[in-house]
Amino acid sequence: MGERVSVIGSGYVGSVVAACLAHVGNTVFAVESDPRRLRELSKGRAPFHEPGLDPLLTSTLEGGSLRFTDDFALAMDNSDVVFVCVGTPAGPDGHPDLSALTEVAQLLARHLRHHHVIVTKSTVPIGTSYWLRSMIEDIAGTTREDGLFSLVSNPEFLREGNAVQDYLHPDRVVLGSDDPEALVRVADVYRPILEQSIPGDVGRRDPIPLLQARMTTAEMIKYASNAFLATKISFANQIARLCDYVGADVTEVTAGMGLDTRIGGRFLDAGLGWGGSCFGKDLEALISTAAEYGYRVPVLEGTVAVNDRQRQLVVDQLLGHLRTLRGARVGLLGLAFKPGTDDLRDSPALDVACRLLGRGAFVTAYDPMVRSVPSAPGIRIRDDPYEAAAGADALVLATEWPQFLTLDTERLRRAMRGDIFYDARNVFDPAAIRAAGFSYVGIGRPELPDAVPSEPTVSRLVRSGRATLRPSALSFTVPSPGEGNGVLEQRAALER
Ligand code: UGA
Predict the structure, then answer these.
(1) Distance (Å) from CA 115 to ligand 1 centroid
(2) Nearest alpha carbon to residue 315 among 302, 330, 303, 304
(3) Among the atoms of ligand 1, which is closest to the Cα of residue 123?
(4) What is the position in ligand 1's atom list of the atom closest to the CA of 161?
(5) Is 278 noted as a catalytic residue in this protein?
(6) Considering the entire predicted model, what is its pTM?
(7) 335 and 349 Cβ atoms separated by less than 8 Å
(8) Rounded to an integer, what distance in angstroms lies between the CA atom of residue 315 and that of residue 484?
(9) Could you report the per-residue pLDDT of 348-385, keeping only the tens digit for each?
């Protein structure tokens, strides 16, 4: 039962891939060269926060289906399908840095003792799979791929904070290769996931679509998906600016748009914009790829520009309200690039904090998972949200952690010197914030005393049971008949 698999690189993606593939019945050798990381992983502890991963590591290690090692040869000898999961961070020119992948190509070429299917999971510039194939051929001294190895591109669609669920219950599995046999082999590794026969799962789920394509197509699907999601967010943010001008509420506008199934409500939450290690890197890579062909991609360039402007908007609007930022005290709720993670890479919240510091403001911050920010020592980290608000002229909700929704807003207001509450993720009900004595500022939610109905349409929809509001995502699901008791559900579910 199951395939013999190895996973090269046990970082964020690799450890999730290794644990999940072992959990569904494959025998997995996962290679990690960093001794400290190897020690932790071998004890069933991921060196980063990812819900559900540690229990999966522990059970598969104990069950013997997963083993971590620094012995590349051992992993290769005991596997037929090799998942390459090394990091490809953005280099200074916007192109992904392929040095780790180059190193792995050399190791792979030297350890091909029987036929291997090599699967690239790292997000790599389009065409990199062909480059990898030539590299391995060169070093291994062969000119024909089929004698020693086959290549398959298998992009990952894992969201931080939801990676285990995304891997075990994906929307689709994409495999790209020129070799039909290799595609079958990798599909076999995924069989339990494709059929949704996951050990321990209760209830029945529909089978997962498998998309088989050329390698470049598979690589492009990954980039195009991330670029489109980022574009949806930037689109919502652009509409939010227009809402400010014309006097409309963007949360209601995007809710109305999202009910159209052709559009869909997810990733339409206007706010501080997108961040993290993926969207920005992948957009830059796609823009650079286009430039290599002398082709401009104004939609993607606009997506990046709007996102950058969104961060500056918060700073500019605070300046407008406070008159001067020099010496102003700003409290920040949230620092991570999104809720559910301690990841600060390209965090919009952190970027705003740095821009404020650069303008002479004093910034105090609270984040449930971030205890220090070595890159920005000027930010004073506090142990709870009320301390972050203490003495502040303005409070900015920068990362929409669900627990912020249950804060005692009157206590926050009492702790502060000023009265600005900048809800940069549009998760609060403006009326409730105003009732606590604040002056509410949202993104694309201007104060409209004459035009706004007594309660926002969104809330009325929800109260009528016609939709459920998830404050973290502000997305709607229309309940099936019988569901929905007409109560405003402030579900703190992390949707993303
Ligand atoms: C993203 C993709 O969602 C994954 O499918 C992909 O596999 C991954 O990148 C990757 O390439 O590795 P991730 O970066 O973990 O996953 O985060 P997302 O949940 O997609 O959120 C990205 C950013 O968009 C966050 O800063 C979030 O706050 C922001 N966002 C999201 C919004 O501003 N508005 C929204 O409506 C949704």
Answers:
(1) 37
(2) 330
(3) 11
(4) 15
(5) yes
(6) 0.89
(7) yes
(8) 40
(9) 999 999 999 999 999 999 999 999 999 999 999 999 99
